[in-house]
Every structure is written in structure tokens, then in C-alpha cells.
Design goal:
About 40% of the residues lie in helices and about 20% in strands. By secondary structure, it is of the alpha/beta class. The chain has two domains: about 220 residues, Aldehyde Dehydrogenase, Chain A, domain 1, CATH 3.40.605.10; about 200 residues, Aldehyde Dehydrogenase, Chain A, domain 2 (3-Layer(aba) Sandwich). α14 links the parallel β15 and β16. α2 crosses α6 and α13 runs parallel beside α14. The longest helix has 22 residues. It is globular and about 65 Å long.
């Protein structure tokens, strides 16, 4: 198997290297046309690709995946459009540094079943924007839909006379093939479970992985709850809760706790407070401390059925009050289904500590959502909590990965820094997939400080 797998992967690598070499001759304009075409194929076939991904993976919501396919295609292309990624990309007269972008070579991308269309799409866009070729190894539960998306993209790239095999996807999914792929490529992107991310970092090649999500949503005393509640619910139920940037916990002020809960109920939440119902929900969502595969990406009705709880017909999301934060209650962990955990605090500082405890248990480095109009409080949380992004007064599920309404780089791969055992603490994009050469000109007129200036000597 070892030799067969190695020979199988070597063929992919050889084809990718040949294609990448040809692609290096493309102009910036040609590169951008290729990258735009990748997005356009997903955008124009969004509904079909949403349907086949839900059908194959058995998780998520077609309407939400349709919105994601269209939305991510639009915002990622908008962000890449017009940016230089080939040749001289910057001249800094003040420092005398000229930057020249060069491809890394062959990118290996491990993609998840939770985002089987948009993650291969965005990884391919970033790789090709940087002048690279890419080989995708999809999750075994999403081989058919991910492969179909790549086939559709390649059919359009052929019309542009792009080199064949610039984008490839493995037709045989196995751990051995993935292991050989990531050991043979020039750089690895790993989006998915921590096992795959760790494997990527152990490949001996530069790797860009992501950490686990567990978004803590802190609601300040001055928050406009009539706006915040529907935004949070929208984020929690989006694609049946499988988005890593989806809101997980609502941390609310004791002084407005009941009022805020009522607003959530008004917007379709069902609040669970009985100890026996809480225990049933824990058992339905977690098995031996890990998320149950039977609950991942399932509807609120399915989750209630698994827990033996009856819900009103119009219920959109379940809210369950935790019995403690962090390690004191498993409900503080990431729940990849339409369930929110509620916590209450006396002071904003205490609310931040609840978020910290929950993140220490799971999700450190990823994202925090804050609904507040108090800049001091927002920046206090920003200083105190070890996450890579703070999303303010927005639906975190659809904004942490970049939005037309914030400055975060649009992506589907969200780095979590060293806190999440990742090499980047920002949203992955094309700049992580290029090498930059720097020309350093001699600056004869630069000022050299005297000892007095340098050390402040008198």
C-alpha cells in the first residue's frame, strides 16, 4: 500500500509541477481571470452545489449553503480583485525596499465535510492567485460533491487555456494518500479536525492549519438586544450550526438576563432550565466528551428528538442554561448544532472571565463576538482574551470569515495563532501562499543616530 500510495501521489505532484511551471508565464491579468472564473463557477451553480453537498454529507441546510456559495464567491473575489501577486508588488521609496512576489509551488489542501464547496473554492483561489498549483484531498464524506465542484471549475478553466492540472482533487481518499500528499507538496493548508491539522504540522513542510471554534458571545449591558438577539440566532442556526465561527454561548448581564432571554424567545428560541432536560441534551450532543456524529449539522427538531424533548413547532434554536463555565459543564464546549448555552454575569469583567474559562476548555485562539456600544469594554475584552478576531455587533458566523461590512480578510480558513496551535493568527488568504523577495537598495542619505540620540545620554 505504501509504494502504491506513493506512486499514486507522485503522479499528482508531477502533473501539478508541470502545470505550475506553465502557469508562471501567465500575466497578472490572466491570473486574475483564472481566479475570478473559479469564484464565478461556484456562484453561478450555487444551488446545485448546495443540494449535492447536503445530499452527500447529510448535514447542513441547502438554503444556507446556497447563500454561502454565492456570498463567499462574491466577497473573496472582491477582496482579491486588483491586488498584485506577481512580479514587483511594492516599491517603498522611504525604506529602499522593493518586493517581488513569487509562487511557492504546489499547495496541498485538506478540506472538510462541513464546507465541502467553498473551502476547496477559496483554497484554489488563494493558491492560483499566488501563481501556484493546488491538489485537494477532500473529507471522505464529501468526495463526490467536492470533486464535482472542481470538475465544473476545470471545465471553465480549459476554456481560458489555463494549464491542465492546475487544480486537482484526489479520487482516492485515504490517510496514507493524505500523508504522502502533504509530505510531497511545497506547503499545506489544513482545514478540518485537529487530527488532520496536527498531521499537517508534522509533515515536514510549511503548514497553515486552523484551530477548533467555540465562539463566546458577550452581550453588554448597553446592547440593543432587539437587534442582537436575531443576529445571534441567525449565526447559531446557520447551516445547522456547523460553521466554526458560529455563536456558541451567550454571556449576558444579570441585570438584564430575563429581559434578554425573553427577546431570544420572541425570536424563536426555546429555553431549557430543567436539570433532567439539560442532562438529556448533554447526552444527546456529547459522547465520551466529544460531539456526537448523530448531532453534528442536524436540525433543531432532530436534536430535540435525540434528547427526548418536545419543542414548539416554530422553534429555531434551543437555549440551555449552563451549570458552570469551562470544565464545570460540557455545555461550555463547541456544539455543532442549533443549541446556545446561556451564562450570566454581574460585571462585564466577570463576563470576560466566563468567556476565558470556556475558551480554555475549547476554542482558544479562534473568535469572540461582542454586542456592545462601549468601546472601553470592547477593548478590555480585546486585551484580555486570547483569540484572533473580535466581531462586534455582527452575526459572527457569517462575518468572522470576512464580510463586505468589516475589514477581516474573506476566507474559509481562520487561523487561531499559537493559542490554537496554528502558525497564523489571522484569516488565511493568498499572501500566505507566496514567497516575497526583497531588494534592499543602499540608502546613503539615511540618518545614523549619535550616541546621545540613541541612548538619551546627556
Amino acid at each position: 500500500m505504501e509504494m502504491n500510495s506513493k506512486a499514486y501521489i507522485d503522479e499528482y505532484i508531477e502533473r501539478a509541477k508541470k502545470a505550475q511551471k506553465e502557469y508562471e508565464e501567465f500575466s497578472q491579468e490572466q491570473i486574475d481571470e483564472v481566479v475570478m472564473t473559479i469564484a464565478k463557477v461556484v456562484h453561478d451553480n450555487a444551488e446545485y452545489l448546495a443540494e449535492i453537498s447536503v445530499d452527500e454529507t447529510g448535514m447542513g441546510v441547502v438554503a444556507d449553503k446556497l447563500a454561502k456559495n454565492k456570498g463567499k464567491a462574491r466577497i473573496i473575489w472582491n477582496s482579491l480583485k486588483g491586488k498584485k501577486s506577481k512580479g514587483i508588488i511594492e516599491r517603498d521609496e522611504a525604506t529602499g525596499i522593493t518586493k517581488i512576489a513569487k509562487p511557492i509551488g504546489v499547495v496541498a489542501a485538506i478540506t472538510p465535510c462541513t464546507n465541502p464547496i467553498v473551502t476547496p473554492m477559496s483554497n484554489a483561489m488563494f493558491a492560483l492567485k499566488g501563481g501556484n498549483a493546488i491538489i485537494i484531498t477532500p473529507h471522505h464524506k464529501a468526495i463526490r460533491c467536492s470533486t464535482k465542484a472542481i470538475e465544473m471549475i476545470n471545465a471553465e478553466l480549459d476554456k481560458l487555456r489555463a494549464p491542465k492540472h492546475l487544480i486537482q482533487i484526489l479520487d482516492q481518499q485515504s490517510r496514507e494518500n493524505t500523508k504522502n500528499l502533504i509530505a510531497s507538496a511545497d506547503i499545506v493548508i489544513a482545514t478540518g479536525g485537529m487530527g488532520m491539522v496536527k498531521a499537517a504540522y508534522s509533515s515536514g513542510k510549511p503548514a497553515l492549519g486552523v484551530g477548533a471554534g467555540n465562539v463566546q458571545c458577550i452581550i453588554d449591558t448597553d446592547a440593543d438586544i432587539e437587534t442582537a438577539a436575531p443576529q445571534i440566532i441567525t449565526g447559531r442556526i446557520f447551516d445547522n450550526g456547523i460553521i466554526c465561527s458560529g455563536e456558541q454561548s451567550i454571556i449576558m448581564p444579570e441585570s438584564r438576563y430575563e429581559e434578554m432571554l425573553k427577546e431570544f424567545e420572541k425570536n424563536g428560541a426555546f429555553v431549557i432550565t430543567k436539570p433532567e432536560d439539560k442532562e438529556a441534551l448533554r447526552a444527546a450532543m456529547f459522547i465520551d466528551g466529544a460531539m456526537s456524529r448523530h448531532a453534528v449539522g442536524q436540525s433543531v427538531k432532530t436534536i430535540a428528538g435525540l434528547a427526548g424533548i418536545s419543542l414548539p413547532e416554530e422553534t429555531k434554536v434551543i437555549i440551555v442554561e449552563a451549570d458552570g463555565s469551562g470544565e464545570d459543564d460540557i455545555l461550555a464546549k463547541e456544539k455543532m448544532c442549533p443549541v446556545l448555552t446561556a451564562f450570566k454575569y454581574k460585571t462585564f469583567e466577570e463576563g470576560v472571565e466566563i468567556a476565558r474559562a470556556n475558551l480554555e476548555e475549547e476554542g482558544k485562539g479562534h473568535s469572540v463576538s461582542i454586542h456592545s456600544n462601549n468601546k472601553e469594554h470592547i477593548e478590555y475584552a480585546g486585551r484580555e482574551l486570547c483569540v484572533s478576531r473580535f466581531v462586534i455587533n455582527q452575526t459572527c458566523a457569517t462575518s468572522a470569515g470576512g464580510s463586505f461590512y468589516n475589514g477581516l480578510a474573506p476566507t474559509n480558513t481562520l487561523g487561531c495563532g499559537s493559542w490554537g496551535n496554528n502558525s497564523i493568527s489571522e484569516n488565511l488568504d493568498y499572501k500566505h501562499l507566496i514567497n516575497i523577495s526583497r531588494i534592499a537598495y543602499f540608502m546613503k542619505d539615511n540618518h545614523v543616530p549619535t550616541d546621545e540620540e540613541l541612548w538619551g545620554l546627556k
